[in-house]
Design brief:
The complex is a heterodimer of chains A (537) and B (372). Chain A has 537 residues and is mainly alpha-helical. Helix content of chain A is 58%, strand content 6%. Chain A has a two-stranded antiparallel sheet. Chain A has a two-stranded antiparallel ribbon with strand order 2-3. The longest helix of chain A is centred in the C-terminal third of the chain and has 40 residues, at 408-447. Chain B has helices at residues 23-33, 51-80, 98-124, 141-158, 164-182, 203-206, 259-268, 271-276, 367-371; strands at 36-42, 127-133, 214-215, 232-237, 252-256, 283-287, 299-301, 306-308, 315-317, 323-326, 338-340, 346-348. Classes of the chains: A mainly alpha (537), B alpha+beta (372). At the A-B interface, helix 2, helix 5, helix 7, helix 8 and strand 4 of A face helix 1, strand 1, helix 3 and strand 2 of B.
Chain lengths: 537, 372
């Protein structure tokens, strides 16, 4: 069939008209398509979590077709020889079957696990970005709170997920969860009996975790993600300070086609990476662990990375049990396990309010802060990161001890002392570094940037030539005010020096022989013209 | 006026029926109505159809096609590649490569289509920079006033202020309904009863009052000659399902100490274990469930006589009642009073004297345990 030119366009107009007649879309569609988004790589960290979540839903649905959330006792008769004839739960058997008997099941299982790790990691990094740039400040406190809540829902969604296979490793995790639950004063044993349907491990916890893992928690996440992204949309994204950027505008590109194409491309990129990881990198090889038995464990039992800080805290906490014989016991694990987890939920939730109270800043902020400009907050953040890292490393201290031939007890003591001392040192160092960076910014604004050109004056003194950023006064000083934006520190940042080479495999641009530009980093053809113009002289 | 926001001045509006307007003029009017101004907007390539542009189009097109190729390969591999696991396969066997091939083909297909879309966006779309008004900080005054009066009218219509009794009655009525909505969760609640204090070694509960014998995981009854000096085995109560997870507090580590170690332990024995004559010869049986949070404390080091729990590295001294000597555990591993019956089989003289496993707030203890 021959297609005439113009048909498709008129067809689209017609379809659009029909839709608009029914749904009155013309106005909202235009607003949506024209919406301006600010651009920065760090604004895409949250999207990694979003896209991993979508993939989690897709792969998870596949897994649910084959997984059997039941602790019915069966004897394995599948094709994995070492476990043949071994008694196990139906949940573990169906996980083995997913890996060995279902076509493509293993790659799906591994993709699911990798995307869950990426999901949690992306949330953490995204959260750091929000924290260190002050993006949680008014009017966005609620979105920060939603984000923290989503991290914890993701945490429990992950924990319930990796507990489902009922293998040796996940059963050990459940056992620790049991010990933590029972440590809660007064309600502990009751809570544990409710969780496990009686004595640990019982035969109901897998089906309870299953409904939480595949329905309740993902539904909550989905609802919160909708609100989270919706709020970003309604409140408009924050932006970095820079030329033309104010608290009252958004500088960037349009939602359609620019933003949406980059988003779709980024989503597919992340999915591609996860798919490759799912095929190439083994994760959670449950067949090696065997079914869960209360009497079996091995060293090197680590939870997924986002749970490790909790395990590390439990390892580090001293053997302090509070006892009033014979009536009352407060087990040691209560402090790091229950109080520690509670604080790591509550403190981040409260942080925006605390900062508001202490800094007495009630204004709305749409421009981001550079971490160096808020040394107190940045120091606090690094402090928490160091604390968390020590806890995570301690969560694997048996592996470190074995790999590097360090005494395990020494690792524990290093962790105990380090987790108290190092965060304080980290705070101090961060604070000083921030001040130093601030000072250097002011210096460049006042004296210009370092050119790297050394001169010797007639008296024999050496000095470095500085390039002022504006017309200097008679003392060679420039009175430029710091605006919170990046201060150029290298000549090529102000366009004075072009990058000497461009191109991935081979040079696509000759270096500028004059070594001087026009002071602006224009894009595309414009610059090429100017370089050529320079050559003609 | 009420139909318009403060920020939209109707008199500025371009007459869209003006035939002289180009498509772009109309488009820009749309942007203006959304508070958007174009700072910079120009095609990526000054002249359309140049060699560079064509080259970029070809690159993007080939990435799309390559993506399709790898997707096809994925589907073909999924269907035709031998995948069935047949026991130990080496790297020469094709089924070893099934999962990696699926991952690589699907991954490359997704990566290529991603790069195609991204390259399209970054190398072919116009260069643009726009600025949009943010309108931060709440609605216009008028909108707020109208909304307030709307809410007030609704509140007034319902008479929420005039009818306080009605409001209270509604709250009083709804609160129990809320409770009723979550009450069925009570179905999950179970009395923990003796689940944390009584184990499979309890003769009255699990063996009709007959002493519970000691067995291996496979059900074989344990006799003293089955453990070499300095050796240790994991044993279970010889009852129905005794080695299964049904009795997750029951697993016990049976250790045959060297003579001098046994002597040391006998000298250290807590009074409660002395009274119960908990050791049998050089044999001692400790609960395997760590008193910290319940992992099996199963790594036995013969030389230093330590038991180590691999989960949180609590360490217990075997020749001192398995008292904790390092790590977060605070209580010793309870000892199972051991005996050997007339048939030469180990049996438990009683259940553990104090509950094994992780602590809980009302965990019963014996005075000498509290003195530790």
């Amino acid at each position: 069939m021959k297609r005439r030119k113009g048909t498709s366009e008129s067809l689209m107009t017609k379809a659009g008209g029909e839709l608009d007649d029914r749904f009155k879309l013309a106005g909202p569609a235009r607003v949506l398509m024209n919406k301006v988004f600010p651009d920065h790589w760090s604004f895409l960290l949250g999207e990694i979590a979003l896209f991993s979540f979508i993939l989690l839903l897709l792969t998870g649905t596949f897994l649910a077709l084959f997984f059997e959330p039941s602790m019915t006792h069966v004897v394995y008769e599948g094709s994995y020889v070492p476990l043949q004839g071994v008694g196990m739960s139906a949940a573990y058997e169906s996980t083995l079957n997913l890996s060995f008997e279902v076509r493509g099941g293993l790659v799906m299982r591994q993709m699911h696990h990798w995307s869950s790790l990426l999901f949690m990691a992306a949330i953490l990094v995204h959260m750091l970005r929000i924290f260190f740039t002050g993006a949680f400040r008014a009017p966005r406190e609620l979105n920060w709170v939603i984000g923290i809540v989503m991290f914890w829902i993701g945490f429990f969604n992950g924990f319930t997920g990796y507990s489902l296979p009922d293998d040796g490793l996940s059963g050990t995790g459940l056992r620790i969860a049991e010990g933590m639950t029972e440590s809660v004063p007064f309600i502990g044993p009751w809570a544990s009996a409710a969780l496990f349907g009686g004595a640990f491990p019982g035969d109901s916890v897998i089906s309870l975790f299953y409904i939480l893992h595949v329905f309740v928690l993902p539904l909550a996440l989905l609802a919160l993600i909708t609100v989270h992204v919706g709020l970003v949309f309604v409140q408009k994204h924050t932006q970095w300070p820079g030329p033309g950027r104010t608290e009252h505008n958004v500088v960037g590109f349009r939602m359609f086609p620019n933003y949406i194409m980059k988003q779709v491309g980024f989503m597919l990129l992340i999915w591609g990476v996860i798919a490759a990881m799912g095929g190439l990198f083994q994760i959670n090889p449950v067949w090696l662990f065997g079914p869960y038995e209360a009497s079996v464990v091995s060293s090197g039992s680590q939870p997924d990375f986002y749970v490790m800080f909790l395990d590390g805290l439990i390892r580090l906490f001293p053997a302090w049990e509070f006892r009033v014989p014979p009536y009352f016991t407060l087990p040691a694990v209560f402090w790091p396990g229950v109080v520690g987890m509670g604080l790591s939920v509550l403190l981040p939730l409260a942080y925006p309010l605390l900062e508001r109270r202490f800094v007495k800043d009630r204004a709305h902020h749409n421009l981001l802060q550079r971490p160096r400009d808020v040394p107190g907050r940045t120091g606090l953040g690094v402090m928490v990161v160091v604390f968390w890292l020590i806890a995570v490393i301690t969560g694997g201290n048996d592996v470190f001890a074995e790999t590097f031939h360090i005494s395990l007890n020494a690792m524990t003591w290093a962790g105990r002392i380090g987790i108290v001392v190092l965060p304080i040192i980290a705070y101090y160092l961060t604070y000083r570094i921030c001040l130093g960076l601030q000072q250097h910014d002011r210096e460049v604004l006042a004296h210009g940037l370092e050119t790297g050109i050394l001169m010797r004056d007639p008296e024999g003194r050496f000095y470095e030539v500085h390039q002022p950023l504006a017309e200097p006064d008679e003392h060679g000083h420039t009175e430029l005010e710091y605006s919170g934006a990046v201060v150029p520190k290298k000549m090529n940042r102000i366009g004075a020096l072009e990058p000497t080479d461009r191109g991935f495999f081979k040079s696509i641009e000759e270096p500028d022989p004059n070594g001087s530009g026009n002071g602006s980093r224009a894009v595309g053809g414009e610059r090429r013209d100017e370089i050529e113009a320079g050559k003609k002289h | 006026m009420s139909a318009h926001n403060d920020d939209r001045q109707p008199d500025d509006e371009v007459d869209l029926s003006d035939p002289k307007l180009s498509r772009f003029d109309v488009y820009r009017e749309g942007l203006r109505r959304d508070g958007i101004e174009i700072i910079h907007y120009e095609p990526r390539y000054a002249k359309p159809g140049t060699k560079v542009e064509k080259r970029m189009e070809r690159i993007v097109a080939s990435m799309f096609l390559g993506s399709g190729l790898f997707a096809t390969l994925f589907v073909a591999a999924y269907i035709f590649w031998p995948w069935e696991y047949e026991g130990a396969a080496t790297w020469r066997d094709p089924q070893t490569w099934y999962t990696p091939i699926l991952g690589i083909t699907l991954g490359l297909s997704l990566l290529l289509i991603a790069l195609a879309v991204l390259t399209w966006a970054k190398k072919l779309l116009p260069v643009e920079e726009l600025v949009q008004d943010r309108h931060d900080g709440g609605s216009a005054k008028d909108d707020r006033r109208v909304a307030e009066s709307t809410v007030d009218t609704v509140v007034d219509d319902m008479g929420l202020k005039r009818r306080p009794f009605l409001v209270k009655a509604a709250l009083l009525g709804a609160a129990p309904l809320g409770l009723a909505a979550i009450a069925p969760l009570g179905g999950l609640i179970k009395d923990p009863a003796d689940m944390l204090t009584v184990t499979g070694w309890n003769a009255e509960k699990h063996n009709n009052g007959e002493p519970v014998r000691v067995m291996l995981k496979d059900g074989a009854l344990v006799r003293p000659d089955m453990v070499a000096t300095g050796g240790q085995i994991t044993v279970f109560p010889a009852i129905e399902g005794g080695a299964s997870n049904e009795h997750a507090l029951a697993p016990v580590l049976l250790i045959r100490l060297r003579a001098q170690d046994a002597e040391a332990l006998r000298a250290n024995l807590y009074p409660m274990y002395q009274d119960a004559e908990a050791m049998w010869g050089d044999f001692v049986a400790y609960s395997k469930i760590c008193t910290h949070v319940g992992c099996p404390a199963s790594l036995y080091e013969q030389q230093s006589q330590r038991l180590l729990c691999p989960c949180h590295q609590s360490q217990f001294n075997v020749i001192d009642n398995a008292a904790p000597i390092f790590g977060p555990a605070t209580r010793h591993l309870p000892m199972l009073p051991l005996g050997v019956d007339e048939e030469g089989v180990f049996y438990a003289k009683s259940d553990f004297l104090v509950p094994p496993g992780p602590a809980f707030w009302n965990r019963p203890s014996l005075p000498e345990e509290d003195e530790q």
